[in-house]
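ok trying this again, last paste got cut off
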Amino acid sequence: MTIIGEIQKNKREIIRVSLDDYKNCPICNVRVCYESKPGIWLYSSKGVSFADKLLPDLIKALQEADQQRKKSNGGDTDE
């Protein structure tokens, strides 16, 4: 498994993006992890795994979501 990045979701959870293999097929995982003990992060059942070849489609959809968010916030990029 190769961890690509982590995003702080809240005080107790992170969203971890990783690349892995499942039955010899390359996959991307976007999963929620929680800290069970200080420094020990475990995967929850929340998240999604998909074939890595779908990444360009996901990136495109996320970029569109970001554009829609900016429009609905009147051009404001802050949350």
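PB: full thing came through this time. Residues 2-72 form a domain with the Transcriptional Co-activator pc4; Chain A fold (CATH 2.30.31.10).
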